[in-house]
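Interim report, section 4.2 (structural modelling).
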Amino acid sequence: MFEAHARDVAPRLLGARLTANGVTLRLTEVEAYGGSGEDPGSHAFRGRGRRNATMFGPPGRLYVYFTYGMHWCANVVCGPEGEASAVLLRAGEVVDGLAEARGRRPSARNDAELARGPARLTRALAITGADDGADLGAGPIRLELPERPAIAFATGPRTGVSGPGGDGAAFPWRFWLPGEPTVSGYRPHTPRRRPAY
DNA sequence: GAAATGATCGTCT
DNA sequence: GACGATCATTTCA
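Predicted structure of the assembly:
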């Protein structure tokens, strides 16, 4: 299953159940990233480094990285070992462990916001860098595929990917379940800060 | 409402 | 030394 390229695996993850630390999520939005040299927006584009080593390992593992000085994001490693494509888990609906998730996300105004957005998702599930490389088939963090793949899903440009030739529209590899209140939706990339004169 | 901004640090240049 | 696969909060209309 995870031997395929991330772009093919991603739509099949929609509706899957991800369980970690007492909370279970139904995935509603994911995003695919290509392998080394293939996709400028991918961490793997410039080859293997310290951070992305897990991407180059066997598929079916969790790749967790730290960003913006405070957030964790979780991916499922795909492709044959060495290809390093991966699927970013962007959003999901909490279907079990609601109380736990609410406790971890006090700022959420409603349950749909508990795991809407990649960093919120990891927070709701209490996933951190310590979980990088975890095997999703066995162990405390589990991913159960839907009995039947989602029939109706939407595709679009990726969010948050910027740079010359690396804009999100170059690879329309974002997949989501239409009509789900837990989908984070498209948000234009806002520059960190305009240089002061 | 929308938009700007601070938080905060590992990784790569 | 810059900046990011982001979020929460504040500011402005």
